[in-house]
Design a protein that fits this description.
By secondary structure, the protein is an alpha/beta fold. It contains eleven helices and 14 strands. The strands form four sheets. Strands 1-2-4-3-5-6-13-14 form an eight-stranded mixed sheet, with helices on both faces. Strands 7-8 form a two-stranded antiparallel sheet. Strands 9-10 form a two-stranded parallel ribbon. Helix 2 packs across helix 3. The longest helix is centred in the N-terminal third of the chain and has 14 residues. It is globular and about 60 Å long. InterPro entries: AB_hydrolase_1, AB_hydrolase_fold, AB_hydrolase_sf. This is Alpha/beta hydrolase. Keywords: Hydrolase.
Length: 349
């Protein structure tokens, strides 16, 4: 069976999905959730390689791909997306499923587990966002750097990048969507997509809705460095630690089994992320950085590891798999190694 596209009307919005039906009897159901500036198309090869007993669905989140464009209320954190996914499970008539989340999608599937633990059989977190969102925090417990969570939210996104998405820029010029994908989604030159794959993925990126209600969202001015703080709408505000806090995942009794897969060359999610303004300030790339005591880089990996370790007290089981030489997209860059670990995880769930 190969993957095909369709649109499913749920109780919340028309949701575009990439779907790979089972070849015979359905024994396992799998929901795959993409990250920021992407859509379900990135999962096509993984889905087509799955065993025939798996019915797999990769939705386009609101604000992405071909799904209905509805405003993202950032004050709910990731709950607009997690509620959308629960409505999709209802429309599919799936009581439960295995969930895989990549990058931002990792946070979304953790939020699904917090909202409806009984519907989650296993979680696979692929290069996931920190449980405390992106930017503006320090320490294993996600302590905010400032009272207004400066350094996170819509104002932290490269202002030159968003208009290129809106304009449908397919060039390979510096800073273009294609250039960003090549440099940061993958660890190049170790991984090189074939031209047909790359064109499909650039198309996916360019379907991202832009503006204050979508990507990156609005912002507020801050008196604290870097002088921007979260607004109330859109993607980057939804994953600001002002509104996103998934630390209660450790309090589930028990948390669902977790496989955490990441590459050791990931430049987006890490303890020294090149997308964290505090890290860029420390490198001298953003002027005015007040120093490590006032504004240290966010230890994203440490924060995730701490939450998963705390979950062990309540019976949580988890495994961290680090793939050498791999960037932000392990299931694409190292498909054999990823699939072996992933299928073993599903068999245990």
């Amino acid at each position: 069976m190969t993957s095909t596209s369709r649109t499913i009307q749920t109780s919340r919005l028309n949701t575009a999905v990439l779907e790979r039906r089972a070849a015979g009897e359905v024994k396992r159901r799998l929901l795959l959730v993409h990250g920021n500036v992407s859509d379900g198309e990135f999962f096509r090869d993984l889905m087509d390689s799955l065993p025939g007993d798996i019915h797999a669905v990769a939705p386009d989140l609101r604000g992405y791909g071909d799904s209905e464009a509805k405003r993202i209320d950032a004050t709910r954190g990731l709950k607009d997306w997690s509620d959308d996914l629960l409505a999709l499970l209802d429309a599919l008539e799936w009581e439960g499923a295995h969930l895989l989340g990549w990058s931002l999608g990792g946070g979304v599937v953790m939020q699904v587990a917090l909202s409806a633990q009984q519907r989650v059989q296993t979680l696979t977190l692929v290069a996931p966002v920190s449980p405390y969102g992106f930017g503006g925090t320090h320490g294993a417990d996600g302590t905010p750097n400032t009272p207004d969570f400066a350094g996170s939210g819509g104002g932290t996104v490269n202002a030159a990048f968003v208009p290129l998405i809106a304009a449908g820029d397919r060039s390979d010029a510096a800073g273009s969507p294609r250039d960003v994908m090549r440099k940061f989604y993958f660890n190049v030159p170790q991984f090189q997509p074939d031209p047909q794959q790359e064109e499909a993925w650039v198309t996916s990126m360019l379907k991202t809705r832009t503006g204050d209600d979508f990507y990156p969202g609005n912002m507020t001015v801050s008196e604290h460095w870097p002088n921007v703080a979260p607004g109330t709408a859109g993607v980057a505000n939804a994953f600001s630690s002002r509104y996103m806090n998934l630390s209660a995942f450790a309090e589930l009794n028990p948390p669902p089994p977790v496989l955490w897969v990441r590459g050791d060359a990931d430049a987006i999610v890490g303890d020294t992320s090149l997308f964290d303004l505090a890290q860029l300030g420390a490198l001298g790339a953003v002027p005015g950085w007040p120093g490590a005591e006032a504004c240290p880089p966010q230890p994203m990996l440490t924060q995730m590891r701490t939450v998963l370790e705390r979950g062990e007290v309540n019976g949580g089981q988890w495994r961290e798999l680090v793939l050498p030489g791999v960037g932000h997209s392990p299931f694409i860059e190292a498909p054999d190694e990823f699939s072996a670990a992933f299928l073993e995880h599903l068999n245990q769930g």
